[in-house]
Amino acid sequence: MAASEQKAYDAIRQAITSGAYGTGAHLRAAELAERLDISRTPVREALRRLHAEGLVEFFANRGAFVARWSPQDAAEVFDLRLLLESHAASRAAGRLSAAQIEALAAMTDRMEHHAFGPQRNIAAVTQANKEFHGLIIAAASNRRLAAMLAGTVEMALVSRTFGAYSDISFAHSIDHHRALLAAFQAKDGIWAAAVMTSHIRAAYHVFIASLGDADADGQRIISPPLGDSVAPA
Description:
Elements: H1 3-17, E1 26-27, H2 29-36, H3 40-52, E2 56-59, E3 63-66, H4 71-93, H5 98-116, H6 122-139, H7 143-150, H8 155-163, H9 167-185, H10 189-210
Antiparallel strand pairs: 1-3, 2-3
């Protein structure tokens, strides 16, 4: 694989999963190539790879767009997260060190600060949450489990979910994090798995409630296509 194709793939995927390129954003090969200082060919190949992963949609005579999320898409992702992350939490419960649990507590405090500070910062909340879950997955000490989760947890979906959270939803999410800390301190894998299951199910229901109007096929989606607009890099 050419280095330029990998560069395009990494950059575009990061922009999509971070939410920098919003749902339905038009991904113009020419503009992306100019921004990345490469030719259009590796950009097109990168877009094909992202299409195979379900992150990009192609439409005849229109081009490539960031894929929209239907209820079925969301259910598939959250179902996998529930199975994999609850197992990761169970494994991590007996492996996390005291220092790692302290780090998780600090991440939770940071998440709470950005959720309930003078001005809510969704990007910072998402980052703190990513670090929290990432440390749990790392502590589970299962490379295949980590690899499966890396391909399952889409940060654009997580960020979208947090964007729909009310004060009560944020409070519940942070309470779940603190309950996980208690389970980890007790080294109770069954408790940790149960809390993680509740945590992810709660996020799923917030996400489903946030979906937008039905499209022409009757599927409910997050938002309509953004036409020719491209989110800033």
